[in-house]
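Box S1 | Example of a co-folding query
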Amino acid sequence: MRFVKGHGTENDFVILPDPDGVLDLTADAVVRLCDRRAGIGADGILRVVRTKAMDLGDIDGSGGTEALDGAEWFMDYRNADGSIAEMCGNGVRVFARYLVDSGLAAPGEWDIATRGGLKHVTLGPSGDVSVDMGTPVPLGPGEASLAGAVFRGERVSMGNPHLACPVYLPVAALDLSRAPEFDPQAFPDGVNVEFYRPVGERHLEMRVYERGSGETRSCGTGTVAAAVAAAAGTTGPGEWTVDVLGGRLTVTLDGGTSHLRGPAVLVAEGETRPGWI
Ligand SMILES: N[C@@H](CCC[C@H](N)C(=O)O)C(=O)O
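Box S1 (continued) | Returned holo structure for LBFN2T5F
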């Protein structure tokens, strides 16, 4: 199986080119590929499939996949534990960089299909990748706890679920070696939990514990959720700088949609040994 390895602010992915959708990517195979000791190691998988080769059922409530028709390529995103997520903000940027780097798309702007709908990306032959992340949906207050301490924040849907909690000490002080606990009635599909601290004018530092992947060094959807929470549960307008463990991302809120910009880097490519998976 051919693979490429890449990351966006150190949120890292194994990219699996599968244009015709012939790969039977089981949850077990995802777990093995993402294993950092016995596998390649990653926070998640990006399977690269032609949209027309995907069987997505009724993804948009219209009885078909019409909502994704405008995009040639579909990002089939999986978390490291094998679960499926609706969207991945860093993933879609790395996916776009892969398409351009491998000659499957030209630099410029176009849509990528995801389970969270079409995402419009903008990129040159090298450098940063921007994506229109769509309209964040603030859902009101929520809470999670970490080692018995309760953190209150804002629930935000970015297609996938987030709880963005302000903290008042440097985020480096948090112990994220264990998963935050939350009320499953409040988050029936699980939740990605962000901890953010304002460090300047529209400037945050943030750490994240991701659903299905554990603590990661960055989360694109999470940075947008944190900016929305820091903007007092509004969608802007304003440009936010968000420092994560793996680097810096820029989030732009315009009162409607949101944009995420930052690096997306491909670092290696190879082939798994026959029979390993
Ligand atoms: N790291 C991603 C989010 C990946 C999905 C998430 N773990 C979930 O289950 O919702 C990002 O950059 O947005």
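The chain has two domains: 2-134+263-271, 137-256. Residues 11, 44, 79, 85, 88-91, 160, 192, 210-213, 216, 219-221 surround LBFN2T5F (CB under 6 Å).
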